[in-house]
Give the backbone structure.
Amino acid sequence: MNCCVLSHAGGLYLQIVCNINYNMDMHQDVVDKQVDSDPCQSLLEILVCPRCKSDLLYNVTPPRYLCLNSQCGAIYNFIDEFPSFVFTNSIEIQKDTQNHYQETPFLWGQSGIKEKYLMHSGAGRFLKEYHDEIVVSKTSLDCGCGAGIISRYLHEQGLKVFSVDLSLTSLRLTISTGINTIHASNLSLPFRDGMFDIVISSGVVHHTPDAQKSVSELIRVLKSGGLLYLLIYRKESFQYIEYSTIGKILRTISKNNLGNNVIDKVIVPLFVPFIYAGKMIKFRTFKSSTLGEYRNYFYDRYITPQATFHSKNEVLQWFEQYGVKPVKYFIGNLGYHHNFIVRKL
Ligand SMILES: C[S@@+](CC[C@H](N)C(=O)[O-])C[C@H]1O[C@@H](n2cnc3c(N)ncnc32)[C@H](O)[C@@H]1O
Ligand SMILES: [Zn+2]
């Protein structure tokens, strides 16, 4: 079954929706069974229960992870080939965002001008400038991996890569040999503290209901001495005005079928030439991206249900609070983004 049970935790009944099933007897039953050696088993050195941060146990048949804390007792099934650690209670509810990126995953750079896209992006600048340190690093996390461009690059550089996304479509675009694709939320990551040498979060935390909590999770899983690259929407930007004015109208229109068709068939095609011209100048190439890339870029910019915008000082205060030191800062394309590179002390 793929839905909804109740568990008792700390006197409160929490409803755990989605792919977590719970039944105390069944839980004990499976915990008692023999566990095989399997690639998923070896992930236990890295994985923890995202809800209570306790150890997990891997069960082979059916394949799933079980929380060893009996007070929590969460069970995490697989969805297709992806271990799924997304649960929805309280703040974890991000259904609209999940649906949005399942239907219109962020594809930008997937085809055509892929390498140029990567190298002209803020993440690309980080990968280039810190190349020597990155190639001798061992483990990396691409949190909110989208179509997996950054994950693939890290894998090509010889790092062990973990790619996380809330959208299964994104994970399907990212999955390939050597990349561990995990369905989870940035708000509650299923990793032990200090697991990764390199953590990348490019354009993700501002799409969650709590960007600060997302940043704290990224820092939690970063090793001491490790590097975090963070791209986050900038409050003092034209995009903030765009998203809260034109975007607000478009999001309202998109709520019904007719409106959505107008956006898809009329507004997006009108928007494409402007973006094409901008990219042509920037990447110095006539090569175009696919219509899908333009379309989904438009959806990411205006229609995405959740986007928050932050001042530089606000983010710097989070860093101070969580014990990381900014080592580089630059403003991204058209002044839309902050790019922070920080080192964990
Ligand atoms: C704008 S895309 C960026 C993709 C990729 N990082 C890149 O630079 O190409 C934002 C991504 O964040 C994912 N996302 C949104 N909320 C998330 C969350 N709470 N946890 C993990 N991923 C999330 C979306 O599904 C989407 O793939
Ligand atoms: Zn647990």
Observations:
- Residues 1-36 have pLDDT under 50 and may be disordered.
- The first helix runs from residue 24 to 32.
